[in-house]
Structure formats: structure tokens, C-alpha cells
Write a sequence for this structure.
């Protein structure tokens, strides 16, 4: 069963189309992440689902009910914003119960819901504090709790962790995943942080220019990106690319002749013409492993970035900047020369003109 359905959705501001004939089905209990760069339309789409923006064309259904023109309060959703938006003069308990009191819910029911939300989010000791006495992570928990007390089927999150430092983001990311596992509610989450997307999502919708480029599991998006944009956007550091020509099962770039017999989609025997080859940094092998790769070459080490658990090495390969990921204990130094190989079994090929995956 679909919890949220979006049909032929358009949104324009004046003559500018922000969302363009967008269709999306979100399954009941799914954690869906809308991922993309700034201005791609992900927060705009979330605001349309929430009823904070009026659509130009199309329809929105929540649990089978057409809510396209319904007020936000009538849609059965709970929303968590990027800013905490807590009332500074109220205690945590007051912030959690404010919406319920405005809706004239019975006092016993309000207390029950506030207590349950506080237990789930582990903020019971904070109920009598005001927001000024809370840390950033605690404030964000309260903001999530304010949505939680509404007891709705669909939760919307608009970059809720972006104001937090790196450690708090990692901690709350785990808590959000555990929260979804406990509640089983449908959650739609907007972010530009691909780590959040990859770790939280059941499915990811990659957006660009008001349309969805690819909608599938994190594993599929990472390993089989539908086009060069998705391949470049997902991954840190991003995929290495070289532009060349496919001819007779060989990828020609500069002086290199790279055989494609190990390329995992090599069943496409008709592949030919200008193309991009993409190899992720962790799929560039070194040392003895390079000699067993489909193609190997000696390259200069231009920059070394120690990152603790691994080391990122920058080099140049056939005129293109290339990055490879090595073990954190690697002793490679700037100015060295090293042998690298390309693991084509895990690479991607894209048409030069359309940039679509071959």
C-alpha cells in the first residue's frame, strides 16, 4: 500500500518551473530520502506534501485521500524543520503539548502522548527545562518530539540535522534510524548530505532541476547510477571520470587502451562511440593487485590526504585528475610514483552526449 502518492505535480513561481510533472509513490512505513544539491526542488516538494505551498498542477494523496488543497493541519502529517522553532518562554513539556492544547485535546491524552514521546526520545529529564538550557542535539530531539506527539502516519523532515556539529549529526542519525525502526511510520527526509541519505534511506530519490533522476535503493544508486550526474553526486570523494571512445570492446583515452571484457555490463556488445568511464576511488587498486587489474599504469603522487581510517591519494591518469583510496597506514608520499589498476568489474560507462549509463 502507498502512504503518499504524487501525480503529475507541477509548481511554478511566475514563469520559473520548480517542479516538473513529478510522479512519486512512497510505500507505507518506508523511509524515503529526497537528495540533491541546493535549488533542485527537494524542500519545495516536501513543502507541497505538507501543504505549505500551493501546487500549480497535479495531485497529492496521503493514505488514499486527496489532500492537494487541504490545509496542513488536515493532512495527517508531522513536520520537523531545519530550525528548531521552539518557543523560548515555554518548557520542553510546554513545547511538546502546545499544539495538542490548541486542538483542545483532553488533558489526560496530552499527558499520555507527551510522556510517550519523551520516553521514545529519551528526554524525560529535560521536560521542565526551557530551550535556552538545552544543547543543540537536545533541542532537535524536542523538535522531533513535537511532531511525534501528533501521532500521525507520515513524518516530514526538512534537513533537521544540518545545524548540528559532525558528532551530533552522527549520533542523531543513528537515533532517527532507530526511531523509524520502532515506530514503523512513513518518513520523508530532505537532505543534501549523502551520508545521511545512504545510511537512513530505504530508497533515495536523487533530484535535479525539479525532476527525479533516479529512485531506488542506496546500494543500487551507489553501484549502478543511472547517469553521470548521479554517479558524480553520490560518493565522497566522487567518482573519477575519463572521457574517451569505445571501439571494438576497447576504451581509448589518450595513449591508454583499456579492454572492456571485464566491464560488468559487457553483454552490450554494440557499445561504441564517445563515452565516459567512471571508477570510484575505492575501486582503484595498487601494488600487486594492480597487476591483476584489467588495465594498469604508473602514475605520480601529487597530493596525500591522511584521513585516519584511510588515505586519499590524488594523481593524474591519462590527463585526468584521479583519486584513489588507500589504507590509513599507507606510507605513500607526495612525489612518489606508484602502480595503479582499474577494477572495471565495478566501474560505470556513460554515453558522452546523453550522459546516460550504458
Amino acid at each position: 500500500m502507498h502512504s503518499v502518492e504524487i501525480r503529475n505535480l507541477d509548481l511554478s513561481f511566475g514563469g520559473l518551473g520548480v517542479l516538473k510533472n513529478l510522479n512519486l509513490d512512497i510505500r507505507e512505513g518506508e523511509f524515503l530520502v529526497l537528495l540533491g544539491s541546493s535549488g533542485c526542488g527537494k524542500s519545495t516538494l516536501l513543502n507541497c506534501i505538507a501543504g505549505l505551498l500551493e501546487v500549480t498542477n497535479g495531485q497529492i494523496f496521503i493514505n488514499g485521500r486527496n489532500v492537494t488543497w487541504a490545509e496542513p493541519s488536515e493532512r495527517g502529517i508531522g513536520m520537523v524543520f531545519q530550525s528548531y522553532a521552539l518557543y523560548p518562554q515555554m518548557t520542553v513539556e510546554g513545547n511538546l503539548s502546545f499544539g495538542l492544547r490548541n486542538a483542545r485535546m483532553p488533558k489526560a491524552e496530552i499527558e499520555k502522548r507527551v510522556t510517550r514521546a519523551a520516553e521514545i526520545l529519551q528526554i524525560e529529564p529535560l521536560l521542565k527545562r526551557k530551550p535556552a538550557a538545552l544543547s543543540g542535539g537536545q533541542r532537535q530531539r524536542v523538535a522531533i518530539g513535537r511532531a511525534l506527539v501528533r501521532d500521525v502516519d507520515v513524518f516530514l523532515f526538512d534537513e533537521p540535522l544540518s545545524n548540528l556539529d559532525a558528532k551530533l549529526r552522527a549520533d542523531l542519525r543513528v537515533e532517527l534510524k532507530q526511531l523509524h525502526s520502532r515506530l514503523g511510520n512513513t518518513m520523508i527526509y530532505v537532505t543534501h548530505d549523502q551520508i545521511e541519505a545512504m545510511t537512513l534511506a530505504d530508497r533515495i530519490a536523487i533530484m535535479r532541476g525539479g525532476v527525479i533522476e533516479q529512485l531506488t535503493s542506496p546500494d543500487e544508486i551507489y553501484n549502478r547510477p543511472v547517469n553521470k550526474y548521479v554517479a558524480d553526486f553520490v560518493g565522497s570523494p566522487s567518482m573519477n571520470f575519463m572521457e574517451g571512445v569505445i571501439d571494438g570492446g576497447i576504451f581509448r583515452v589518450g595513449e591508454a587502451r583499456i579492454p572492456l571484457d571485464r566491464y560488468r555490463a559487457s553483454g552490450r556488445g554494440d557499445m561504441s562511440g564517445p563515452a565516459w568511464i567512471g571508477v570510484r576511488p575505492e575501486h582503484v587498486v595498487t601494488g600487486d593487485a594492480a597487476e591483476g587489474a584489467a588495465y594498469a599504469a604508473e602514475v605520480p603522487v601529487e597530493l596525500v590526504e591522511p584521513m585516519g581510517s584511510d588515505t586519499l591519494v590524488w594523481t593524474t591518469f591519462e590527463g585526468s585528475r584521479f583519486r584513489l583510496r588507500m589504507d590509513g597506514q599507507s606510507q605513500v608520499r607526495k612525489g612518489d610514483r606508484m602502480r595503479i589498476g582499474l577494477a572495471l568489474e565495478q566501474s560505470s560507462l556513460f554515453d558522452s552526449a546523453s550522459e546516460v549509463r550504458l
The first helix runs from residue 42 to 50. The domain at 2-227 is CATH 3.40.50.300 (Rossmann fold). The two ends are 33 Å apart (CA to CA).
